[in-house]
Structures are given as C-alpha cells and as structure tokens.
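Worked example 3 (structure in, sequence out).
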C-alpha cells in the first residue's frame, strides 16, 4: 500500500545486514519444538532436513526454519501460508510470546532476544500491539473499557485513557457503541474493538494474526478495506498473517510465502505473480487475475527499431488493468517513462496477453 519499487523476488539472504531504515529485522530465526531442540539450527545436517524427516529422526518439529526478512517503516508485510506453515509461531516469536530457538529479531532497533522481562513488557505495552483472530476481548467489560485496558495496565490516568479510547473508537467507526458489551456486537464490530484496542497505545508496530478469518466474506472485505484506510490514516508498520492469497495481495506491500516453516519467496504481489520462485508459488498465484496485480513494468518490451514512438506516456507502476483502455485506444504503443527516461513500450499484444490470463 505504500509506494514500492520493484525488487528481486528472491528470499533475502541471511548475510544481508539490515539497513538503518528498517522497523523489523529478522535473521535466521528458528522455532523448533521437541527434545533438544537447540541442536537443530546449529547442526547443518539436521537444519537442512525437511520437516517430516526431521520429525522422524529427532522427534522435533521445526515450526519456523531459518527465516530472514526486513520490514520497512510504514510497510504492510504479509506472511502467507497454508495451515501449519508456521505463521502464528513466527508472529509470536517476534515479541517472544513464543521463545525462539535461534536467530535474531530487531524491532525498531531493539534486540528482542536480549531483552529482559521488563523490557519485553515495555515492548508489548508501548511498541508492538497484536490483533488476534478470536478478538481476545474481556467479555464483562464495555467497549470503551476494553479499548482503554492496555492504557490502564500502563498506569495512565483515567481521564487520559478514556479520552484516547474515545478517539480510537471514533477512528474505527464504533462511535455510539462505547457502552456496549462485546457479545452485543457482530463479529466484524468486535474485531473493530480489537483494532481500536491495538491502536489505543499508539504502538509503532501492529501484528495481525489472521484477524478476519472467522468473519463472513462480506464483513471480511469491509474489514480489509478498514485496515487499508487505517493504515493510510495512521501509517503504522504492520505484519499481517493470512492464509488467503487475495487478502495478502490486497493488503501487502510485500508478501512472505511460507511452506513447512521455510520461506519460499518474499516479494511484492507483482513479483510473486510475475516471477514466482518455484512451482509451489506458481500454483498459488495461478488463479490470480494478473491484470489487477502486474504493472506495466512487468509487461513492457523494448521498442522495435522501426516503431513510431509518439504514443501516450504512462508510469511503470500503473497496473495493467488501469492501462488497458489507454493502450487499446492509442494508435501507437504506450511509452513507459520513469523520471523522463523511456523504459519500454506496451502495445495491444502485451495488455491482451495479460488480460487473457486474468
Ligand atoms: N507448542 C507446540 N508444540 C509442538 N508443535 C507445535 C506447537 N505449536 C505449533 N506447533 C506446530 O508447528 C507448526 C506450525 O504451527 P503454526 O500454528 O505456527 O502454523 P500456522 O501457519 O499459523 O497454522 P494455522 O493457520 O493453522 O494457525 C504446526 O505443525 C503445529 O502443529
């Protein structure tokens, strides 16, 4: 949702150092459940084993295997994978709700693995908030008190926390429901309370663990739009877990695809669709309407030697679906231009090729 430039679709390398402009940096992160789990990441032979073989050989289950990625400030980073791929374990390892077995996690410059109990409490109260699938609301507390709860724990004055709770309740569209109990609200509205509660403490980072998967499809679409709107308004860094590719493509500036605990590909939606890293990703993205995801950058070609270059000019980051009309109506190929430089051209054949696959 923030403007992103095209990047390589290959997974980030563990030896890449995080740049200064990174909110979350994960390096070689492992979570292994089972006996003597510590030996798995450090033993190259065990570390390389697929999940089922490792389980047979050692009795250990590698939920998260050697993950490395960076999330930039203000980015929506989606972690996508089927059930059991390790998404929830990963997101819980970020704030040590689950203790990682090995690796490094930096959040806004703070080394999470070295943090003591007090620092972790501070981190969870001030820096990072989580929105869960099952809302996690306190059933006997009114909406306003649920939203203000984190601020109460933080020891903030009642007037301050109620004022802040009113502010975020309005932000998520729940004005008028301050005194309702959670059970009096629909699923979508309860999740709005969850969102408001996460936003109340003004954290730098929001973590979402499949927040909408229990909701009906239409409500779910509303809530996705709500996240897009909120992200635009509050501009937080977000890590969003989902098993739904269309949700990932809709929300994610970048998407990490996980399989059996490992990262298969990290990239923008266009990179996953335009250059899938392997057959697994290719199968996943097969049904995606490509014109909605690919940009002109992905389909442009070099101009032919004798081609007349007087067609209209478009930016390389324009989606194909938004360029179809301009391309088909033009009498010459559209010129794809960035900062005054001609990158390539797009004609009828290129757009129709993508639209036909959509
Ligand atoms: N405490 C635990 N002990 C042993 N194995 C665990 C534990 N927690 C999770 N696992 C296993 O780790 C793997 C990854 O689980 P995880 O819940 O992270 O996956 P997920 O992608 O979030 O799946 P879902 O979408 O179903 O929540 C699964 O095989 C799961 O059974």
């Amino acid at each position: 949702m923030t403007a992103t430039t095209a990047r390589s679709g290959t997974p980030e390398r563990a030896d890449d150092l995080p740049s200064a402009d990174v909110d979350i940096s994960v390096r070689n992160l492992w979570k292994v459940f089972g006996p003597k789990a510590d030996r798995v990441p450090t033993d190259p032979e065990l570390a390389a084993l697929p999940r089922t073989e490792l389980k047979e050989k050692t009795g250990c289950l590698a939920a998260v295997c050697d993950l490395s990625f960076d999330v930039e400030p203000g980015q929506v980073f989606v972690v996508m994978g089927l059930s059991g791929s390790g998404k929830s374990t990963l997101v819980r390892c970020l704030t040590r709700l689950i203790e990682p077995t090995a690796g490094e996690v930096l959040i806004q410059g703070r080394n999470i693995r070295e943090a003591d109990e007090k620092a972790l409490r501070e981190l969870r109260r001030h820096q990072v908030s989580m929105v869960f699938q099952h809302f996690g609301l306190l059933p006997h507390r009114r909406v306003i008190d649920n939203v203000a709860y984190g601020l109460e724990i933080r020891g903030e004055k009642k007037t301050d926390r109620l004022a802040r709770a009113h502010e975020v309740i309005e932000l998520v569209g729940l004005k008028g429901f301050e005194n309702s109990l959670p059970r009096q609200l629909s699923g979508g509205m309860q999740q709005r309370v969850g969102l408001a509660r996460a936003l109340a403490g003004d954290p730098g980072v929001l973590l979402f663990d499949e927040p909408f998967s229990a909701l009906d499809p239409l409500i779910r679409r509303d809530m996705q739009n709500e996240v897009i709107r909120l992200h635009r308004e509050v501009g937080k860094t977000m890590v969003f877990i989902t098993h739904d590719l269309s949700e990932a493509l809709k929300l994610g500036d970048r998407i990490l695809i996980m399989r059996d605990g490992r990262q298969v590909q990290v990239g923008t939606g266009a990179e996953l669709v335009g250059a899938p890293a392997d057959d697994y990703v290719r199968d996943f993205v097969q049904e995606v309407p490509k014109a909605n995801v690919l940009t002109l950058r992905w389909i442009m070609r070099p101009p032919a030697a004798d081609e007349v270059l007087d067609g209209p000019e478009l930016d390389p980051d324009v989606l194909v679906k938004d360029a179809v009309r301009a391309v088909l109506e033009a009498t010459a190929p559209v010129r794809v231009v960035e900062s005054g430089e001609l990158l390539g051209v797009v004609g009828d054949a290129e757009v129709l090729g993508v639209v036909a696959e959509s």
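Notes: The CA atoms of residues 336 and 343 lie 6 Å apart. The chain has two domains: 72-97+116-288, 292-357.
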